[in-house]
Q: What sequence folds into this?
């Protein structure tokens, strides 16, 4: 809390120790008792005088009869406390008037040296994100003390750390308006999983701070993403407690009575579980916890009508309590004490947070997706007269902007994903153009992580994608800084660089909207958290060209954006045209072609700006590359100008459920539940003890996920039944995968199924804290089972016996989903054992492979391939905990370490809705490796390398698809796919 002058008092984890009087005999004790008695009499006299003075102020305002009643009132001893509590109802949230004049931050750590960052390009976040200052920024005592020109007198005579930015971009720390950082702690364990409550859809009495785990490994990773926190800063303090990480906590957090002479502080209520705002990486922990979630999330407690009734019922209770407080205070402030004699100020800890909502003192964040739910909440705000600070998720908000404009109290902020749609039914119509559409309608737009749905460390990637799909650069940067800070009522402190603020500061290695932009240094409370020069971390080599310091030039998506609105988010995804004749591609800057035979892989042809070339395609096959092809292009059926674009191989998706389900959270759209042979008996009618089944039998074509992937340049997918997202682990038997064409119309199309049985899959790991298989077998049981199956343990006339025999003989790849380096070491020994006893060679592949870098040399020696799934690592579970984080925390990445040791590596993706981002993952991988990986190697990670490991070379090979990208490289934000060259289909598909 604060006293006069805005000076803070500490918030204690426990009550301050009582002052014990020194022992000195009876005279000393007697003197103290007399002193206490006199002090009590003096205080009582003061209270009486104050009360009389207060009553006198009412005299002119009341009638004679009222004055008569007042004259007979008996003043309670707690009158002043009651009047102070009543007065606090009218306190308006906001900073004290002298906030900008404070000399130090309330989070300042004594001994912290001042910091001068000079020669910077400062994106301040001010003026709706349009303000850019070229100059210096001075940090002192946890505050921004100067921006632009910094007089030398401020720092010349002090021990000041000076950092030369060399013109680099400096921004405020990123603010994540929706994350579960600290309550779903990494690595996830059952003992630190304070995610959700079983006490109903409305629980406004819960506080997420009570479950915040300061040992969450994700905190340090988040800081490496670029910054600060929202309401909770992600810097471990000297006190090492959650409370000491809070910024501007409500006065009532520790039970203290607010000072009515000071402005109130905003409280925050959010849907389900927990709500942290974290800026790159700090985070905001929501002090209040309120399940204002719509639609599917609270379905466990009833249907949509039940949910809305629970909201209305809860707010009605809060309204009754508010009205009771107002009536009580009206009598107290009128001096009618006899009418409330024996009564206490009306309070109920269950509803006091909602009372503050009705008083307009809470920033309410609501989790809704569809118009039915958005409309319902808007009606609720009108009924009970309270504002909404932000709607979260809101996948269909772009379809009903006028509805949201009717929200009581003004338009809310929309907190969105950039492009995470179709994972459940109410997200099915989401649009990647929603940020731009809503901004055009005047809504503040924030991007969020929903960590660990998306990793908080990579929140800037959400802003980058939003910019790629049309959000202007200044609004894209504001979406992860100033907009969420304002939505939380904290823009006077964070999200904007201004004098007197305690915003955190990030120095980037390139423009923050460039793919792979990485913080070089991060300061929280003026204390350097990332980028200590003594760590010798190399960040940003190869980014010296001028274009790296500008926001990327992005394609025009006007037609696509308008189509999403016209078709309610379900615009047709079929191609515009197919051409079986000659097609000439002009102004091509780069060409990557497949090679067969002993030199299988990719060839790379690059042309400079002044001499871009031509590529001729006849009946789907490249027939000519180079300037000499210009003549052949004159009689082409179609000529396409790529404007400095690229032709590259169609990419392969691995690791997601692409092709076997339409909507992840809708079981009715997928294959259904499979039998787990290590958890229960398999029905005899199946005739196979291991329940080995084929993806080929469950494939569905023309799903939106598959078609969106196809249009994004991912033209093939290899899908198994293994599902091990985040911290879960699937059953042991993963079945037989299939490889298919993502754009195929149906299974009977000639080129739809590339390889009906691609590989045999198993999943091996320790039991997770949360699992779909509660009776999961032990790790040792899983290994023993695999050994048994590979050494002819089952009859080869069964599916299990037959396919494991083929895997042991190397006739089919055995892909093992595994994270732990220790388990991989065991599998390497098992591979050697099987090969020695059988005299065969196994084609083993590790997927997921989080800790593979720890034994990269041994994996290479064992000739085992690795598919990193996903490409950027995170300590999801105990088996995943020992990651190689990459810049700015480590020089190496897992990918680079594996390639350096000669391991054949591919990249995979867990979520089907993220498959279209594959090319950006590849481009990012190049940059994270500090350019140790070149473009040709990068393309191979999602094409020919996967073909080698999964034995697809003879099935795809030089007949594989090529994709034409207009505008620039396929591996950055400058281009978009516009055509697919298909030798197997003997045509060019124009998208």
A:
């Amino acid at each position: 809390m604060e006293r006069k002058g805005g000076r803070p008092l500490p918030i204690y984890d426990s009550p301050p120790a009582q002052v014990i009087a020194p022992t000195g005999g009876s005279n000393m004790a007697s003197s103290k008792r007399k002193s206490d008695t006199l002090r009590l009499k003096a205080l009582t006299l003061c209270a009486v005088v104050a009360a009389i003075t207060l009553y006198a102020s009412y005299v002119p305002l009341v009638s004679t009869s009222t004055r008569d009643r007042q004259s007979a009132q008996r003043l309670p001893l707690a009158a002043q406390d009651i009047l102070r509590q009543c007065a606090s109802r009218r306190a308006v949230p906001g900073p004290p008037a002298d906030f900008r004049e404070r000399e130090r931050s309330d989070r300042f750590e004594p001994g912290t040296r001042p910091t001068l960052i000079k020669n910077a390009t400062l994106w301040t976040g001010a003026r709706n994100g349009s303000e850019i200052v070229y100059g210096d920024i001075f940090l002192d005592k946890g505050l921004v003390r100067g921006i632009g020109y910094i007089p030398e007198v401020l720092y010349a005579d002090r021990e000041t750390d000076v950092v030369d930015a060399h013109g680099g971009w400096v921004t405020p720390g990123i603010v994540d308006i929706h994350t579960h950082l600290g309550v779903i702690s990494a690595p996830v364990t059952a003992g630190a999983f304070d995610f959700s409550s079983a006490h109903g859809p409305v629980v406004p009495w819960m506080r997420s701070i009570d479950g915040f785990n300061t040992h969450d490994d994700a905190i340090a990773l988040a800081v490496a993403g670029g910054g600060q926190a929202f309401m909770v800063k992600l810097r471990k303090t000297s006190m090492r407690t959650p409370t000491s990480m809070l910024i501007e906590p409500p006065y009532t957090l520790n039970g203290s009575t607010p000072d009515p002479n000071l402005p109130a502080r905003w409280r925050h209520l959010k849907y389900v579980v927990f709500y942290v705002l974290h800026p790159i990486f700090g985070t905001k922990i929501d002090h209040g916890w309120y399940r204002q979630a719509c639609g599917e999330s609270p379905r466990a407690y009833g249907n949509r009508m039940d949910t809305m009734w629970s909201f209305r019922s809860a707010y009605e209770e809060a309204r009754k309590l508010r009205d009771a407080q107002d009536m009580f205070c009206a009598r107290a402030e009128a001096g009618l004490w006899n009418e409330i004699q024996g009564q206490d100020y009306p309070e109920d800890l269950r509803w006091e947070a909602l009372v503050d909502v009705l008083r307009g003192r809470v920033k309410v964040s609501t989790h809704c997706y569809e118009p039915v739910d958005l409309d319902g909440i808007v009606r609720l705000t009108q009924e009970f007269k309270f504002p909404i600070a932000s709607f979260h998720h809101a996948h269909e908000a772009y379809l009903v902007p006028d509805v949201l404009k009717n929200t009581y109290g003004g338009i809310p902020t929309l907190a969105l994903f950039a492009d995470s749609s179709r994972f459940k039914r109410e997200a099915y119509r989401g649009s990647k153009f929603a940020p731009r559409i809503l901004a055009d309608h005047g809504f503040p737009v924030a991007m969020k992580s929903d960590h660990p749905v998306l990793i908080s460390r990579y929140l800037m990637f959400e802003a980058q994608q939003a910019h790629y799909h049309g959000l202007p650069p200044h609004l894209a940067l504001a979406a992860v800084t100033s907009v969420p800070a304002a939505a939380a009522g904290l823009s006077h402190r964070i999200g904007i660089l201004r004098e007197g603020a305690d915003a955190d500061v990030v120095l980037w290695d390139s423009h923050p909207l460039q793919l792979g932009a990485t913080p070089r240094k991060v300061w929280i409370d003026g204390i350097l958290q990332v980028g200590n020069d003594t760590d010798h971390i190399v960040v940003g080599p190869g980014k010296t060209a001028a274009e790296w310091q500008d926001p990327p030039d992005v394609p025009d998506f006007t037609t696509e954006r308008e189509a999403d609105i016209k078709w309610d988010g379900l615009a047709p995804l079929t191609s515009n045209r197919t051409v079986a004749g000659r097609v000439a591609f002009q102004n091509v800057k780069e060409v990557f072609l497949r090679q067969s035979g002993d030199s299988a892989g990719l060839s790379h042809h690059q042309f400079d700006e002044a001499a871009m070339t031509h590529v001729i395609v006849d009946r789907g096959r490249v027939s000519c590359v180079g300037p000499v092809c210009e003549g052949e292009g004159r009689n082409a059926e179609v000529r396409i100008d790529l404007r400095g674009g690229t032709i590259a191989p169609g990419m392969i998706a691995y690791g997601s459920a692409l092709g076997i389900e339409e909507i992840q959270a809708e079981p009715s759209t997928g294959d259904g539940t499979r039998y787990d042979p290590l958890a229960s008996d398999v029905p005899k009618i199946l005739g196979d003890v291991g329940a080995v089944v084929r993806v080929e039998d469950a494939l569905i074509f023309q799903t939106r996920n598959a078609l969106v992937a196809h249009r994004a340049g991912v033209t093939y997918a290899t899908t198994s039944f293994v599902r091990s997202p985040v911290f879960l682990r699937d059953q042991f038997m993963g079945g037989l995968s299939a490889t298919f064409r993502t754009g195929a119309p149906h299974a009977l199309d000639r080129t739809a199924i590339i390889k009906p049985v691609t590989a045999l899959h198993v999943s091996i790991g320790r039991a997770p804290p949360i699992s779909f298989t509660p009776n999961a077998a032990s790790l040792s049981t899983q290994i023993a089972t695999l050994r048994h199956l590979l050494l002819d343990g089952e009859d080869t006339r069964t599916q299990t016996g037959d396919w494991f025999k083929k895997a042991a003989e190397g006739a089919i790849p055995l892909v093992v989903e595994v994270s732990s380096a220790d388990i991989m070491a065991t599998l390497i020994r098992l591979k050697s054992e099987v090969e020695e006893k059988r005299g065969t060679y196994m084609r083993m592949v590790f997927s997921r492979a989080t800790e593979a870098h720890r034994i990269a040399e041994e994996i290479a020696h064992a000739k085992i391939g690795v598919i990193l799934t996903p490409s950027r690592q995170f300590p999801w579970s105990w088996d995943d905990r020992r990651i190689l984080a990459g810049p700015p925390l480590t020089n190496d990445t897992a990918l680079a370490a594996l390639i350096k040791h000669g391991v054949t590596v591919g990249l995979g993706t867990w979520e089907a809705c993220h498959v279209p981002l594959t090319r950006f993952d590849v481009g990012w991988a190049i940059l994270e490796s500090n350019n140790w990986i070149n473009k040709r190697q990068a393309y191979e990670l999602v094409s020919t390398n996967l073909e080698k490991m999964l034995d697809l070379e003879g099935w795809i090979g030089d007949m594989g698809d090529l994709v034409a990208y207009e505008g620039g490289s396929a591996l950055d934000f400058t281009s978009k796919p516009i055509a697919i060259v298909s030798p197997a289909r003997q045509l060019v598909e124009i998208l």
